[in-house]
Recover the amino acids of this structure.
């Protein structure tokens, strides 16, 4: 048995132990990302679950739809579809809100120093770059509530890194206030789009605004879900949007602003957004 097999078997054992204690779990691929949607849910064909706007568990046979796939059912976790995922898994994740927990994700030393000064002491788990502070209680999740600080609870997942040290404190008002008072990202000044008029008298070949709206919503989700390599994720998303919609004349400044705002919520600057958009247009020649 190889070391890789040993590690992945350990992931399954960890997942079952967590599930037995009431913590909903799911497998993660390399890069700390969930497994892709199953065939029947490709391109969000099944509706609300993939875009994370509808709370509730996924009903797919495989570990589909990120946080909504998390489960405590050992029969699901050890099913054939999930075992196939565990064999390829790089880590175990869990749904904090489903376990009645809120994770304050502190991404660097400055964020940790801020937390030590402003937040109650609680159970702490070391991460690759910082710490997870765990509080008993659930709330809405929010990214970028402060520099280097994300909140993961309902409708979110977090990587399982062990139980850490200390006793879990109750969720304080100071953490809840972070999501309420989250600073709005600076609204970008999107570039005016000048794209070639489509054939057929200028009519959008997609024929229905719903197709464009779904594409923009999926792009926003893709950017929001990025947990690493945000620069590349933003550029690839811009490239995908432009490759589909950049030549038909249906994109507006409002659509571009939505994409820029999603990127800035992940820490991108307005300048980086503009550069990524320009580079994507240049690559595609639009």
């Amino acid at each position: 048995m190889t070391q890789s097999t040993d590690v992945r078997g350990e992931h399954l054992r960890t997942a079952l132990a967590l599930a037995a204690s009431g913590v909903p779990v799911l497998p993660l691929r390399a890069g700390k990302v969930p497994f892709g949607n199953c065939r029947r849910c490709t391109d969000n064909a099944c509706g609300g679950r993939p875009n994370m706007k509808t709370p509730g568990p996924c009903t797919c046979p495989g570990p589909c739809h990120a946080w909504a796939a998390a489960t405590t059912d050992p029969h699901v976790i050890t099913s054939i579809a999930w075992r196939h995922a565990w064999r390829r898994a790089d880590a175990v994740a869990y749904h904090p809100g489903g376990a009645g927990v809120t994770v304050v994700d502190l991404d660097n030393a400055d964020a940790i120093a801020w937390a030590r000064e402003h937040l109650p002491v609680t159970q702490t788990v070391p991460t690759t770059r910082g710490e997870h502070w765990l509080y008993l209680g659930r709330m809405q999740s929010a990214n970028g509530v402060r520099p280097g600080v994300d909140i993961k609870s309902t409708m979110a997942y977090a990587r399982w890194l062990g139980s850490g040290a200390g006793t879990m404190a109750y969720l304080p008002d100071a953490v809840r206030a972070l999501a309420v008072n989250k600073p709005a990202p600076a609204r970008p000044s999107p570039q005016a789009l000048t794209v070639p008029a489509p054939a057929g008298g200028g009519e959008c070949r997609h024929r229905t605004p719903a197709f464009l709206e779904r594409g923009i919503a999926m792009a926003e989700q893709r950017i929001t879900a990025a947990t690493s390599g945000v620069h590349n994720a933003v550029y690839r998303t811009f490239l995908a949007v432009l490759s589909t919609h950049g030549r038909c004349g249906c994109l507006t400044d409002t659509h571009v602003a939505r994409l820029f705002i999603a990127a800035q919520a992940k820490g991108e600057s307005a300048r980086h957004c503009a550069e990524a958009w320009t580079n994507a247009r240049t690559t595609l020649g639009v």
About this structure: The beta strands are 25-29, 33-34, 91-94, 101-106, 123-126, 131-136, 142-146, 149-152, 158-159, 169-170.
